[in-house]
Predict the structure of Adenine deaminase.
Amino acid sequence: MWPSAELHVHIEGTLEVPLLLRLAERNAVELVSSDPEVLQRRYAFDSLQSFLDLYYENLAVLRTEQDFYELCSAYLERAARAGVRHAEIFFDPQSHTERGVPLGTVVFGLSRAIGEAQERWGMTASLILCLLRHLGGEAASDMIRAALPFRRHFVGVGLDSSELGFPPSLFQEAFAIAAAEGLHRVAHAGEEGGPDYVWEALDLLGVERVDHGNRALEDAELMAVLRERRIPLTVCPLSNLALKTAPDELADHALPVMLDEGLLASVHSDDPAYFGGYLDDNIAALRAAGVLTEEQFGVLAANSIVSSFASAERKAELL
Ligand code: ES4
Ligand code: ZN
């Protein structure tokens, strides 16, 4: 197991069925069923939107600081076992504030778990605040402004949720506010959207990293820019399979092409509770597909560390 950095995981997407049931009971939130098998069977999708519908439905069980702490602690413990030495964790504050959960409740719970993971396992982790595309540009700007009092709890801003119809251009003001605060900037692009979404994320939002980016391969000029500027792509193979944003066989995934083209790609888990696995499971599935050499797995792990926002000292320690 190569020491790695997890750079593309949504904390709300780490909500496993047993914890979902426990939190639903504790907070008196009614679920469609109390049978874990029935709930687990719903974790089957045919598109990004079909997944997002369930993801937003389930996260309604998260209400208190303790809930967010337990969610994040469980993730970090599992990630440590997967060889993750540094994690940059997405959270979707609008999905919580919209339901009346204060932002402080979310960030204090998550931050407490991160502090403990550092003490327990010497793991480093930080938070990236993700803006929800489907709520639009103005809501995104309002969210980032409302988050500034909590600035020390996160290192960057990201962009996620439904991609098609919500291009990066709508979020220029929010990302300009983030940039002025010295926050790192990343965005999901090229998952379902075409190369034009990746261009916009680079040119209009100034992102330093592209989440997914699979469809960048359709544009040779874009690939050259990503290669020359060393823009990382955080690739999520099991997510792509689950959401049908890649061919049905992992052996046909674009990842080997990305490496052959000299792109700075690394492997991540996205929403591991929903897509069938954590970082180690993604690596194991790629290994089973037999399309990457052991040396390339080493390159992918090193790429994850190089692509992170960890300090130069921390990167040197992990490489
Ligand atoms: C997501 Cl896989 C994916 N894509 C876009 N937004 C998301 N939020 C959580 N998982
Ligand atoms: Zn994602």
About this structure: The longest strand covers residues 124-132. The radius of gyration is 18 Å.
